[in-house]
Specification:
453 residues; TIM Barrel; 6-stranded parallel beta sheet; 4-stranded mixed beta sheet; 12 helices; 21 strands
């Protein structure tokens, strides 16, 4: 049955369903138990939030990009050689916003000398986050050392380029400590060159020799929809972030477990659980039943699910569409005139509530539970540098049994005593809008804070 927009919002906990501030470290210490759940630094989560942007290329402007990053709180930009951005513009963006750059060869790029030279300038200015290989060689082939590769040809030239990129970074006195992300769509290899491994192990039977190192991080474009999995589903973003074979989109397993094109063996399912990984493109375009409202709530869930499932950094496609690709505006956070869409507003609210730039040397633990927690409700415990714990919860029930009157599952978050957002229990907290509630753990007073309003 096709759901109307109103029915979808009523039946779906899209976005952060609740956020409880559990007090400062000192105030909450009586509630922290060794058996509790360990928090993650809020700054670490916020630093995982990225976006694809040409910054000043392809019709984008430095003023517009700066304002957009300041408003959303996004902390890194993924771009590369094809964007034709000056190093000065990237450094200036960093100076104005604090955002850093993931800089890569991207589509068809092979100029290692230029990439390393410009990355070195970015690093010296403190503006570099990581270095990335090619973008989707299955769609944009390359010619390297006189040999064409990628697409439906041999991928040996692609693998050699990635190997040489890694060696170039690690042998550079300025760049050697910066992480290298693999190219994307390693699952599309036509021949088994070994790009499904960060380092090719003995016995892998690949065309590149054992010991070849490609990257420090696996890299995927796990968009939260796929031709084989169209439409909207329960746990849309949670499943898309899965490292295992249950992932229904172009995820980690299909690129590093068993390649999706020719089924070459890679890492075991157990190894994939802890494989270092990043996402440099993901999203969901507006269209059909996906309105800007639904897209905005999906994007909130996307960033949270990715981080919870151990993706170190996630770049949403797209900040603002490029002038030569106007049709891509339906993916973007901002319209071409830099007017924010609903997703930009919701992200602004979330990052404002969680705002923190300090480090947490040893995150603490909190003993809490979610009574009768459904499989579509997820939680993330964060801790700010002032010691405050923030408990973020989000839900992804689309076509389930949870309606506005259902109070059977997920009703309480228990931290010493039950606490609830004032507008309802957990499972329904976001049926009408995704509420972010504040509960003072000591006085049990409630202050409502909303990301999705």
């Amino acid at each position: 049955m096709r759901h109307t927009r109103r029915q979808f919002i009523q039946r779906t906990a899209i976005g952060a369903a609740g956020l409880w501030s559990l007090g400062t470290d000192g105030r909450a210490i009586a509630d922290v138990r060794p058996a509790g759940r360990k928090a993650v630094a809020a700054d670490e989560f916020l630093s995982s939030l990225g976006v694809c942007s040409s910054i000043t290329g392809r019709g984008e402007t430095l003023a517009g990009t700066t304002e957009a990053l300041d408003y959303t709180g996004i902390r890194f930009v993924r771009c590369g050689l094809e964007d034709r951005i000056t190093v000065g513009d990237m450094i200036r963006l960093h100076e104005l916003t604090g955002a850093r750059v993931v800089y890569g060869l991207l589509s068809g790029g092979t100029n290692l000398g230029r990439l390393l030279r410009e990355a070195r300038e970015l690093a010296t200015a403190g503006a570099l986050l990581a270095i990335e290989g090619n973008n989707e060689p299955n769609n944009w082939g390359i010619t390297y050392q006189g040999q064409a590769g990628g697409r439906d040809k041999s991928w040996l030239p692609v693998a050699k380029l990635q190997r040489d990129l890694y060696q170039g970074v690690k042998s550079d006195g300025v760049l050697k400590d910066y992480p290298v992300s693999n190219l994307t769509e390693s699952g599309a290899q036509t021949d088994n060159v070994g790009l499904q491994f960060l380092t090719i192990p003995d016995g892998a039977d690949t065309l590149m020799p054992p010991g070849t190192v490609h990257a420090d991080y696996a890299n995927c474009h796990n968009y939260i929809t796929h031709p084989s999995w169209p439409g909207l589903h329960d746990n849309q973003t949670w499943l898309s972030a899965s490292p295992g074979p249950d992932c229904p989109v172009d995820g980690l397993y299909g690129n590093y477990g068993r390649t999706w094109r020719n089924h070459f063996a890679g890492y075991s399912q157990a190894e994939l659980l802890t494989l270092p990984r990043v996402t440099t493109e993901t999203g969901y375009p507006v269209g059909g039943e996906v309105t800007e409202e639904i897209q905005a709530r999906l994007f909130m869930n996307l960033y949270l699910s990715q981080f919870k499932r151990r993706w170190s950094h996630t770049a949403l496609y797209l900040l603002r569409t490029r002038s030569n690709e106007p049709a891509h505006e339906r993916y973007a956070l901002f319209r071409m005139d830099y007017t924010p869409k609903q997703a930009a507003h919701y992200l602004h609210n979330l990052t404002t509530i969680l705002a923190d730039r300090g480090s947490v040397a040893a995150p603490g633990r909190v003993d809490y539970s979610i009574a009768n927690q459904p499989a579509t409700v997820h939680d993330l415990l964060l801790q700010k540098s002032d010691g405050t714990f923030e408990l973020v919860l989000w839900g992804e029930t689309l076509r389930g049994r949870f309606g506005p009157g259902d109070r059977e599952s997920g009703r309480d978050v228990r931290h010493g005593q039950p606490v609830r957002p004032h507008n309802g229990h957990l499972a329904n907290a976001a049926h009408d809008r995704c509420g972010l509630g504040h509960v003072d753990a000591e006085r049990s007073s409630r202050r409502r804070r909303t990301a999705c309003s």
